[in-house]
Amino acid sequence: MTSLAPHNEPLDKRLVKHLLRRASFHFSKVQLDEMNGKTAREILAILNSPKSFLWVWPNDPITNGANSNCANIQDGYWINDPDWTYTSYPCRQVPKRGLVAGWWWYNTIKQNTLIDKLTWFLYTTFTISKDDGSGRAAHFFDYINLLQFYADKSVKDLARKITFDNSMLYYLDNGNNNKNNPNENYAREFLELFTIGKGPQIAEGDYTNYTEHDVIQAARIFSGIKFKRNRDNTDKGTVKLPHYPNGIPTGYISIKNHDTGRKTFSKAFGNQTIEGGNTTDSIEDELDDFVDMIFNKLETAKNYVRKMYRMYVRSEWNQETEDQIITPLAHQLQDNDYNLIEVLQTMLNSKHFFDLDDNNSKDENVGGIIKSPLQFFCELISLLNIKIPNPETPQIPQGSGWDRSNENFRFYLFWWNFCHNTFFAFSGMNLFGPSTVAGYPADYQAPAYDRAWFNSNNIVARYNTIKSIIGNSYNDNYGNGNNRIQGAQTTNSGNTYFTRIWTNFDVISFINKNITDPGDAYTIVQELSEIFYCENIDSKRISYFTKSLIKDGEVSYIWYDAWSVYSISKDSSEVNDAGIFIKNRLDDLISKMINAAEFQIM
Questions:
Q1: For residues 570, 576, 579 and 585, what is the CA-based torsion angle, rounded to 10 degrees?
Q2: What is this structure's pTM?
Q3: How many helices (DSSP H) and strands (DSSP E) are in the chain?
């Protein structure tokens, strides 16, 4: 029977992997081993640790001294430049917004917490596109931090606060919503996407949960909220260290542009009337009354829980799940002032989540979701322990040019050129930049949902990612990754090359550290599959992958002999030849196992 009853037994590795993948974006073999045998409640307590920031401030290492349009404009740590004004802002806003996304990603990959995926969940709920009319890079930084601040707090409070966020005001035009010139964009999305959601359309302009009349009234309530371009107005209730000792920058209320009249809503909200305010305090009270009206409806809580279920459990469900899982969690959400993290932990600690509430524990949830490009890439970096450039290092001094020996600059090349502009762009997930306010099709578009992540338009980027990470070795310290997604580049002289991506992956060292018997080809494949995949693979699949190490027609001990020579020979020439043999075959094995169907699901 479908049940939210907690699963209190210690988890084996299969269920630990399931929990880690769904609760977060990544894990390592070390974490997997450490958490093996713990209960779900114990693991969730570990993941519910406070969020820290190893890379504190996003940094743009490119200086603009030679650009007359940007002369004397500070780059580097530009966000809190005291000279920042709307008319004198740092140049290169597009890459700076991309670097804010990189700042979020780097801090996500360096720490494993519930907060990270919850922040992303909130992003897919209160969506903007960073590159489509959402303000400056600093505004986008404020927006991401606002989501992060409320990830372990009340989504009801966030729904109110996001209304004043500068990026949101830009993106949905509510900064242009005035009493004499109403703009309904934000009001419509607030009802349809951000809170209660559409129900079945039962009449013209009547979506069960709200009506077109309610959109008009909501726009009147939201009128007169303006951008604060220079970010000097802060919300004292959102103090967030180390970034916001005085609170997160926010918009403000323009009383003269606010519709102060009475607002009466439809029967969907019991024909409730909200009195209009004519002072800053009374307008804020008016907004509070409106938010209370929406969040007092159980359907609002159900809408959030359904979105969470789709992200964390599976994309589709039956009426029994609606009645026994969604509805009880919606009541819990309401009863706990809309605190998402408490509901999430109830969901992830349940027998239902682990598919242990019926007589078949392998037919529904484990391996039931196709990984998003974000999940895929984070897992790839973490599981293989890929070395990436470290942006925590000091910034390049102004005027020093492009210094490729500087880790900060290397991270820029890795993130901006490869991750942001190549992998995410070609895999169908422009990071923080979906084409519509509804978000990515995988989050809302039935019946495909997560299956939208894997189609003929974006699978090539996935398949070439591991080839890029493995890359070719170079004779310097710049790393061995190169951009196979982008393809070969041609010089003026006609020579071809692949652009470096500044990663480093020592496949032999990885196998040495993570496999109990590296001299046994079968053991390598079996133990890698236990790290990479949701379920154990059968002997036919093991045999298929083993052929990367021992080719058809070769003697069965060829791998053992090569590894033995590499490990114990004193002859440097023999060791070198064996190392090349081993690396080439391990590269082929890792590529096939990462690109296999088993790695695309979670």
A1: -140
A2: 0.95
A3: 25, 8
pLDDT at 72 over 60: no
Over the stretch 198-255, which tens digit does the pLDDT of each residue have? 999 999 999 999 999 999 999 999 999 999 988 999 999 999 989 999 999 999 999 9
State both tokens at 34: 């450490």
Strands annotated E in 236-352: 248-249, 252-253, 263-264, 273-274
| Radius of gyration in angstroms for the set of CA atoms belonging to the chain, rounded to a whole number | 26
> ∠ at Cα 584 (579, 549), nearest 5°?
95
Task: For the chain, give percent helix, strand, coil, nearest 5.
Answer: 50, 5, 45
Alpha-carbon span 461 to 98, nearest angstrom: 19
Q: Which amino acid is at 204?
A: E
Q: Which residues pair with 490 in a beta bridge?
A: 496
Q: What is the pLDDT of residues 421-467, one digit of tens each?
A: 999 999 999 999 999 999 999 999 999 999 999 999 899 999 999 99
Q: d(Cα 410, Cα 416) in Å, to the nearest integer? A: 10
Phi/psi for 383 (5° steps) reads -65, -40
The answer to whether the CB of 562 falls within 8 A of the CB of 581 is yes
The H-or-E segment that residue 235 falls in is: strand 234-235
Question: 461, 485 in Cβ contact below 8 A?
Answer: yes
Question: Tokens 């001294």 belong to which residue?
Answer: 65
Strand 489-490, strand 252-253: pairing: unpaired
A 10 A CB-CB count for 237 gives 11
End-to-end CA distance of the chain: 23
Cα 77 from Cα 372, distance rounded (Å): 31
Rounded CA-CA distance 204/173 in Å is: 26
Which of helix, strand or coil describes residue 355? coil
- Lookup: tokens for 578: 């064996």
CA proximity to 163, closest of 236, 251, 238: 251
Provide the residue ranges of all domains of the chain, joining segments of one domain with +.
151-296, 382-497, 507-600
CA 80, CA 444: separation in Å to the nearest integer? Answer: 36
Tokens standing for 438? 């509804």
Ordered DSSP codes for 33-100: HHHTT--HHHHHHHHTPPP--SS-S--B----TT-GGGTT---BS-TT-TT--SSS--S-HHHHHHHH
CA distances from 130 to 95, 97, 140, 146, 561 (A): 11, 7, 7, 15, 54
Locus of tokens 């279920």: 309
